[in-house]
Structures are given as C-alpha cells and as structure tokens.
UniProtKB/TrEMBL annotation:
It is an enzyme of class 3 (hydrolase). The keyword Hydrolase applies. This is 3-hydroxyisobutyryl-CoA hydrolase. The keyword Cell division does not apply. Residues 17-336 form the Enoyl-CoA hydratase/isomerase domain. Residues 351-360 have a biased composition (Basic and acidic residues). InterPro entries: ClpP/crotonase-like_dom_sf (IPR029045), ECH_dom (IPR045004), HIBYL-CoA-H (IPR032259). It catalyses: 3-hydroxy-2-methylpropanoyl-CoA + H2O = 3-hydroxy-2-methylpropanoate + CoA + H(+). Its EC number is 3.1.2.4. The lineage of its organism: Bacteria, Bacillati, Actinomycetota, Actinomycetes, Kitasatosporales. It comes from Streptomyces bikiniensis.
Amino acid sequence: MPTGTADVLLRTEGRAGFVTLNRPRALNALTHAMVLAVDAALTAWEHDPAVETVVIEGAGERGLCAGGDIRAIHDDARAGGTASAAFWRDEYRLNARIARHPKPYVALMDGIVMGGGVGISAHGSHRVATERSRVAMPETGIGFVPDVGGTRLLGRAPGELGTHLALTGTPVGAADAILTGLADRYVPAAELPALADDLTRLPADEALARHAAEPPAGVLAGQREWIDACYAAPTVEEIVERLFDTGLPAAKEAAATLLAKSPTALKATLAVLRRSRALATLEEVLDLEYRASCAALTTPDLVEGIRAQVIDKDRDPHWTPAALEAVTDADVARYLAPPPGGDLGLAAEEETGRDPGARA
C-alpha cells in the first residue's frame, strides 16, 4: 500500500484505489509534494493486481483542483529561484504517466478544475464532469501559458474552440468540456458517491454506464461559426479585430476579455498552441510547454499577474509590454527555445523505451 500525506489521502477499497487531493481551503491546489505522492501511488498501483481502477477526487465540495500552487510560483519567480522548474518537471512527468497508465483512471471532475487540475484529470482514460464542473485553462490571465498538456487537449478540440478557450481562459461546463475533449461523461454530482461505490465492485465502464446521463446544454456548439472564423486568424491582433468586427455581443465580449490578458502570454500561447497541433505525442507537447513555462518564469508578467489576481486581488495587472503590438517576434521566440537549465526531455525518453512518466 503506498503512503499518502496530509494533502493526498490514499485508500484502497475493493477493486479500486482512491486518490483524494486534500487541500480544500486552497481548492486542492497542487504542491510539489502532492505531485510526488500521486506519482508514487500510481507507480505502486500499476503493479498491484488487487487494484484494477484508479479514482482521483478532490476533498470538499468546491472542486477537484484549482491548479498548481501559484503563490509558491510567484515567490519563486520573484526570487529568481529554480523550485518552479523542478515542480513542473515532476508535474509534467505525472501528466504523461496518467495518460499512459495501464489501468482505468477515473477522474471525478466535480466543481473547479483548472490549470494543473486539468492536467491531473483530463489525460485520464475516464473523465467525469458534473453540473458543477467549471473546467478551464486560465493561464493568460496571470501572464502564463497553458501547460500540463493543455495545449494538446485544446489543440485537438473541434475547429478553433480550443484556441478560444486557451486565449480567453473561459471556464466551461460539462457539455462544453465533453464537446472540446476535456471530459467524456456527465454524471450528476448527487450520484458521485454511488458511482464511487460501484467502482469498488465493477469495471470502470460498467460502473459509469450505470450513472452517466445527458448533460445540461452547453453554449460553444452554438458559437462555432464566429469562433472558427475569428480564431483562425494568423495573429492575436487580427483575432481581436475579427471579434469586434462581427458585431456579436458574445464575440465583442471575448475581444474585451483578450485585451485584459497579458499581451505577451496571448502571443506565446497562440504560438505554442499552433506548434503543439503538429506534434505527434503528449510527451513532445509537454517538452514544448516546459520551455514556455520556464520562459514565463523570467518575465515580469507572471509575477504581476499572480499579484493582481491572487496576492493583492485588485484585478488590475500592469502588463509589460502593455499592448499586443509591442510584443515582438523575439519575445515570443523565447517561449519556444530551450531553457537555460535544459529541456524536459520526455519525448526522448519515450523514444528510448524509458517510461516517460518515471522520474529521473
């Protein structure tokens, strides 16, 4: 039996192993120690014949996981430290391990599931959303770029829906999460305890079939026409221009949302998202995102964005540079270049036959 921590509770019941992220006051935000604890549990259960299904859930009623511990990232970035890069190395390896886990991995994506919460759930084999789900990659709002394999997930969404979600950071409910490939099934929140109980006794597919239902209607399917037309533009500036030119209230609202985000993060996100679409594996995308994350760590926008949204909560970030047209090609190229500390190297490990999710 793997050993949990105060922040990651582990238990086995019947045929299932349960991981409970246990920082409800912090919306179960991931720390480095939590990532390592989950990784160790997956390693142990992979080789335990008594565990046939892995289930991940969040403590409390507010969400599975709101992402990484961005206060810690803020402090590390201000100090010019290396803790964040080390955290991402292990977090991204965990994302890869989840995607390649040989046993059913059931993520109960109830409530808030954002950033790192998407990484720890949406790469699983069975992703369950509820009517309370709010799934998002909101990184551009803090001067960061979608990571944890998020650009692969969003890059494979129908049309330009993923581009819209990556740039605006808009949270989606169950139907839209399923439409965009961030989730598979809808189960009413009230039925999650019964589902969890069935997972201890039944194969994952059979247990889910007992509780899956039709989700409440989403909104993205009805917005495909203007989203696809606007977000197919080659630059962020033209995307914004097209959004305003539609005359549609929802499109103009999206444009206004974009103009409030970090200009550098927007341009870097578009570049990473479009490059990730051409990559064959999740490991290659995680390598690319690691480059972008390390680059963001050295920019003023990441510290400023976290300050405005999380530390001071004044919601008034002052971006550097402040306008899209002031962000140069060289600024964006930094996000695609190898970081000073070296690449993540997950794709190379996969090619040599080494488990890409295993830590060095």
